[in-house]
Design a protein that fits this description.
This protein is of the alpha+beta class and about 675 residues long. The protein has 20 helices and 31 strands. The strands form six sheets. The chain has a ten-stranded mixed sheet with strand order 20-18-17-8-7-6-5-2-1-31, with helices on one face. α2 crosses α7, α14 packs antiparallel against α15 and α15 packs across α17.
Length: about 675
């Protein structure tokens, strides 16, 4: 392999390959190209090799043609998906956005698609026959799909609409991430550091793809959702940024008062705008989809006399993909800010660090300018009969909460509101509109994050890894002592034994932790005397509201439940919480963020005693700037979803051991770890 590389380098420039992809032993593609078009081509080709079947599925869905390609699906799921995508105008708008790209970025998107199609041409046997119905892909597909996921999966989705209209919780509850940026003043080495730590479900469009991209003057390493032609989590020789889901409300639902085929608005019955689309359904007759829109936007709910229209911010901002690239390609903080301030990206907290020592937190997104109401008012279904609730403008970058180079030397986000982005706090909710963020009911993971950061005066790179993998439960630290005291003072042998288990427990969710399963049963039933105060994260909430007698009864019931489920009050966590993919089945460590774990895994829902992780650590990356930079990474479910790939589950044993791979940044190190190679 090295001889081959030397021979290639000895060729005249016109004869040297334009694109090379070196695949390492964990299925990470290291793309080397002579220009940006080649880089996009290689990125597209590598994406298809690693996740081709999944990408074709997602692109087919984003086109609004899943039922056409694959039939109605179980419970007509493909038809419902197509309805959602088409009602919100995703395919048409995405095509328009593609046409609006600059000639330069349009070429790059076409090169991305060309790379995908080239893989399909070279390796038709590697792709599922049904998925190949989507081929060929186009540059527009990348825009359409990114648009679908950003605005109509993250900002809103069909499940969230149903949840809000019917009064149930939205479908994407629990999605979250961790992010830290450490300034030189708080770093043991005197260099900036960053933690990228998204938590998403281990399936479908949530899946992350890790890749290394190189061209003259460009070296980017990171990850993004499969099928995205840019990196959302990325570092270069100069800077890094990561993201977490935020609680920005950039989408609103409006209840309409309907009479025949018109709706009341400011005292006038206005006719709906309507148009029809033909939906082809494989194995069934075609269907006609009638799409109605009000001044607010499309009607997304029309059942049982309830008609609701949806208004989504940022549908006039087509350059999100380009903005991501230009953010990543910036060399200075000023260049980065010039790009992020365009607000083409509709959501996410963005956490930043650079080699020069700057750190930043931004509550990013397309936040509507509203004339009334707080977050609770806008989170529900609002009155659509008046122009008083119809927003038309978006807040500027200057309006959004942000923290730059704070005295604390760190910024963090764990999906908490902006006010706790550093500590001591520097942002005040009163300085921003009351609808800025909905916040969260519990902040145990946030408090754990802040506690670890403030307890350490200086943090080394190795300590950064150690802290990232902490499974200690903040909620346990706040409550176990009171539970133990109540048990010790009781006459109940069962409660006393449960108290002894909790007292001996390490308050962690390590695989061998005994007491975590018992505490998990108890935790959701605990109530506090002093409620949460965001400005006092270490002191609130506090004081259990239950009487000692009630706590004893709770311990007795939890003890019985633990024995029933797990065979013992002190069963080890990892015996019943598992990391399982394919044929790999290992004891897990890490727990739900709702319990205050920073090392997050959520396990399959239901009452089965043995449950496997379905959400939590996905792509994790630690970076320390220096000469040279150093980084470690892991992609929990492997870097390929293709059936039969060697890289579907190969990193899971490392996840179980809290190990990370050393990121291969130098070409010589990549070449020393090559599994295979593609040359174009």
């Amino acid at each position: 392999m090295r001889l081959f590389a030397l021979l290639l380098c000895s060729l005249p420039l016109w004869a040297q390959p334009k694109v090379e992809i070196l695949w390492d032993h964990y299925g990470v593609a290291h793309v080397y190209a002579k220009n940006m078009e080649g880089l996009f081509f290689g990125y597209g080709y590598a994406s298809m090799q690693s996740h081709g079947d999944l990408i074709l599925k997602l692109y087919g869905e984003s086109r609004g043609r899943a039922a056409e390609y694959w039939g109605p699906g179980p419970s007509d799921e493909n038809i419902k998906q197509d309805h959602w995508v088409r009602v919100n105008g995703v395919p048409e708008r995405g095509e328009q956005w593609y046409q609006q790209q600059t000639p330069e970025y349009k070429k790059y998107l076409d090169a991305w698609a060309a790379g995908m199609n080239e893989y399909a041409k070279r390796h038709p046997e590697a792709l599922n026959e049904e998925r190949k119905r989507v081929l060929p892909v186009t540059g527009a597909d990348a825009v359409i799909h990114t648009h679908r996921i950003m605005q109509f999966s993250y900002l809103t989705n069909a499940g969230a609409v149903e949840g809000l209209v019917t009064g149930h919780n939205p479908a994407l509850g629990g999605i979250g991430s961790n992010a830290w940026a450490i300034a030189p003043k708080k770093s043991a080495s005197g260099h900036s550091m960053i933690l990228m730590n998204p938590h998403l479900p281990w399936r479908d469009w949530f899946t992350y793809y890790e890749i290394d991209l190189n061209a003259p003057g460009i070296h980017l390493y990171g990850a993004s959702q499969v099928g995205f032609p840019m990196l959302r989590f990325v570092f270069s020789d100069y800077l890094a940024f990561t993201q977490t889901v935020n609680s920005i409300d950039a989408n609103d639902l409006y209840k309409l008062e309907v009479h025949d085929n018109c709706y009341m608005f400011d005292g006038v019955c206005k006719p709906f705008e309507t148009h029809s689309e033909t939906m082809k359904i494989r194995g069934r007759a075609d269907e006609t989809l009638v799409i109605k829109s009000s001044v607010h936007g499309p009607v997304v709910w029309d059942k049982d006399g309830m008609v609701v229209a949806q208004r989504t911010a940022g549908l006039d901002r087509p350059f999100g993909i380009e903005q991501y690239w230009k953010m990543a390609l910036a060399h200075t903080f000023a260049e980065y800010q010039a790009q992020v301030s365009r607000l083409q990206v509709p959501t996410f907290n963005i956490t930043y660090a650079d080699k020069a020592g700057h750190i930043m937190y931004l509550f990013n997104g397309t936040l509507p300018v509203r004339g009334q109401g707080d977050s609770a008012f806008w989170h529900g279904v609002v009155d659509g009969t008046t122009s008083k609730t119809l927003w038309t403008k978006i807040h500027s970058y200057e309006d959004l909460p942000k923290v730059i180079d704070p005295p604390s030397g760190f910024v963090q986000n764990t999906n908490d509101p902006p006010w706790t982005s550093t500590y001591p706090t520097v942002l005040k909710a009163a300085d921003f509109p009351p609808y800025t963020t909905a916040g969260r009911d519990e902040l145990w993971r946030t408090t754990r994050s802040l506690r670890m950061l403030t307890e350490h005066d200086k943090i080394s790179f190795d300590e950064l890894k150690e802290l990232k993998y902490s499974t200690r439960l903040e909620l346990a630290d706040r409550t176990v002592d009171e539970l133990v005291k109540a048990a010790e003072q009781s006459d109940s042998a069962k409660a006393k034994h449960a108290g002894e288990v909790l007292k001996a427990w390490d308050r962690q969710t390590e695989a061998d932790s005994r007491g975590a399963l018992l505490f998990e049963i108890i935790a959701s039933k605990l109530k506090f005397e002093v409620p949460l105060d965001l400005m006092k994260p270490f002191d609130t909430p506090r004081g259990l509201k239950q009487t000692p007698a009630a706590l004893v009864a709770l311990l007795e019931a939890a003890s019985d439940e633990a024995v029933k489920r797990y065979g013992a009050v002190d069963a080890p966590w990892g015996d019943w919480r598992r990391l399982q993919l394919g044929n790999v089945d290992l004891p897990a460590n890490g727990g739900p963020g709702a319990l205050g774990a920073f090392r997050v895994f959520n396990y399959a829902p239901g009452n089965a005693p043995k449950r496997h992780a379905v959400m939590g650590d996905t792509f994790v990356c630690l970076v320390e700037f220096g000469s040279p930079n150093r980084a470690r990474a892991i992609t929990s479910y492997g870097n390929s979803s293709q059936e039969g790939s060697l890289h579907e589950t190969d990193q899971l044993p490392m996840v179980a051991k809290k190990e990370m791979r050393t990121v291969l940044l130098m070409r010589k190190d990549v070449e020393a770890n090559v599994e295979s190679k593609d040359v174009f």
